[in-house]
């Protein structure tokens, strides 16, 4: 996967407004030859709601980007208990929730 172009990061961030909820640990994006891959890393097993949510994100991005730049968007959701540093960030993380232990 290639590095995410700045214009694409801005479209993704804009499309994320109001779409992030507490069970999403991170969102990775990969971009290669006009295909975008979005992956939700969840703190639990993904549900139908999660798949609907990532489809909404995909639709919002697709609607805002020139069709000549992104021709296809693939989506994935997976449960991930590993630390962020051990997750596949594809071309880069576009969202990571803050995780820390308040009792340390």
The largest sheet, given as strand count, sense and whether it forms a barrel, is:
4 strands, mixed
End-to-end distance: 37 Å
The radius of gyration over CA amounts to: 14 Å
Broad CATH class: Alpha Beta
- Sheet with most strands: strand arrangement: 3-2-1-4
State the domain count: 1
CATH homologous superfamily (4th level) name: Cation efflux protein, cytoplasmic domain
- CATH topology: the name is Alpha-Beta Plaits
- Count, helices: 2
- CATH architecture field: 2-Layer Sandwich
Instruction: Note the run of SSEs as H and E.
Output: HEEHEE
Return residue spans where pLDDT drops below 50 for at least 5 consecutive residues: none
Q: What is the tally of beta strands?
A: 4
Strand percentage: 25-35%
Helix content: 25-40%
Structural class, by secondary structure, is alpha+beta
Based on CA inertia axes, which overall geometry fits? Answer: globular
Mean pLDDT: 93
Q: What's a quick, concise take on this entry?
A:
The protein has 104 residues and is of the alpha+beta class.
Model description:
The structure is a single chain. The chain is α+β, with helices and mostly antiparallel strands and 104 residues long. 27% of the residues lie in helices and 29% in strands. It has two helices and four strands, in the order αββαββ. The protein has helices spanning 6-16, 48-64; strands at 24-32, 35-42, 72-79, 92-96. A four-stranded mixed β-sheet has the order 3-2-1-4, covered by helices on one side. The relative contact order is 0.28.
